Amino acid sequence: AAGIRESQTHRLAAPNEVGGLDEATARMVHELSSAGLTHSGFDVIHVGLGPDAHVCSLFPGHPAALAVGVPAVAVRNSPKPPPERYSLTFEALQHAGRVMVVAGGGTKAEAVRLGLGTPDVLKAPASCCRGEQTIWYLDEPANALMTD
After folding, report:
1. Do the Cβ atoms of 44 and 98 come closer than 8 Å?
2. How many helices (H) and strands (E) does the chain have?
């Protein structure tokens, strides 16, 4: 839908399509590599912002947020359910032509402030969620701590 051809989308493997987290992550790495997306990047990546300033299942202080050299990482012991998931890495996000970050509500205001601040992958992973162009879409409550 949305006028985008199927050949221009990337869908994550559904849980019933893979044998576990490692297989899902390996499959994603293979698909991204085969599509040439490990170095040239996605045209657009759309992410949400968590109240703890996490994006893409890359949580503050979590080792998965530090993954380098690969476009995707397995996330074990996630602080938010489900405990096992997989994600793009910051390397993949930073190769994107455009990253769109969306946040709404007052519970996200501090995360927005941290995310738009100095990059700090351990304290605020969202601060490292940057592509060639990065646009943040915020409602007024989420933007409440930002000054003009």
Report:
1. yes
2. 3, 5
CA 44 to chain centre: 12
Q: Return all residues near 102 (Cβ < 8 A) that are at least 6 apart.
A: 46, 47, 48, 49, 136, 137, 138
> Contact, 60 vs 53, CB < 8 A?
yes
- Going by the DSSP 8-state scheme, the letter that residue 34 receives in this structure is H
What kind and span of H or E run contains 112?
Answer: helix 109-115
Q: Which candidate, 54, 46, 47, places its Cα nearest to that of 114?
A: 54
**3 state DSSP class of 42:** coil
What are the tokens at 112?
């927005």
pLDDT band at 5 (very low <50, low <70, confident <90, very high): confident
Structure tokens at 103: 């946040």
**Single pTM value for the model:** 0.89
- The answer to whether 103 touches 111, Cβ cutoff 8 Å, is yes
Query: For position 3, what pLDDT does the model report?
Result: 76
